[in-house]
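Batch job 17 of 40 flagged for manual review because the log was empty.
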Amino acid sequence: MELRHLQYFIVVAEELHFGRAAARLQMTQPPLSQQIQQLEKEMGVTLFSRTKRRVELTEAGELFLKEVKKAFIQIDKAVEIAQRAQRGEIGELSIGFVGSAMYDILPPIVREYRKKFPDVSVVLHELSTPEQVDALHDNRIDVGMLRPPITSQLLQLETVQHLPCTLCLPKAHPLANKQAIYIEDLQNESFVFITRNVWPTLYDNILSLCRDAGFSPQIVQEATEYQTVIGLVAAGIGITVIPVSANKLYQSEVVYKEIRDSKIVAELAVAYRKANINLELQEFLRIARGNVMTHLQNDEKNDKIVRMQ
């Protein structure tokens, strides 16, 4: 049984006239009659009752017509699903992210993605940078939002965010009310750091900045997440240097101050397998890149406003 036989059957059943049905199908009547007879023979069922004056559906034909129309609806739906899948409009996208990405950049990207592709299932996994690299290699996630650098030759890396870093102090700290803070002011302080295996670049940059100023920071505690680091600062354990995106945390207990001579920048990047041609991934990357451009334009506007003031 071929699909065209079913199409022919539907048209004849709707017209109940072989001549009109043949005209709709843009074919002659004899081949159409032969195709219907072939269908009936293959099924072993009489679908039409024919006389010289009229053509009628048999009871079997009427029931068959209902089911065939249902089948064509499902076929049309299947075709639409396949087409949408090819356009990246349905499917699943698995995203890994470091916790700090949720402070600013990731939520608007995911929100826009879900708005444009509501039928794509978005699955989020909070993972450290090393964990994301492993998950990408194992195909457990499609894309990661992580902290560079990474060394894998199988992964593509695109920077999506550059953020300046700020000093975080307990509110009662002597430096909290100082107008201008320089790195030399921190040489006798206790530090709380994000662990190096989680964020090696930031860790090394802070060490380098301190050593350039002539001292080695006294690291009294390390943690794997911003929330924990800032919580330890709030508890008076020490001070820290973090990206400005975290400046909304613990505002009643800590203060955030600029380090005047610091040029420490925190980077966030998207990483994905070079061999991954998943269309859901490509659409996510397109939105992420557009989000980066919007942030850059807003930063330029803010810089102009500051300079005018």
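Reviewer: the log was empty due to a logging misconfiguration, but the result itself is present. The domain at 3-86 is CATH 1.10.10.10 (Arc Repressor Mutant, subunit A). Unflagging and moving on to job 18.
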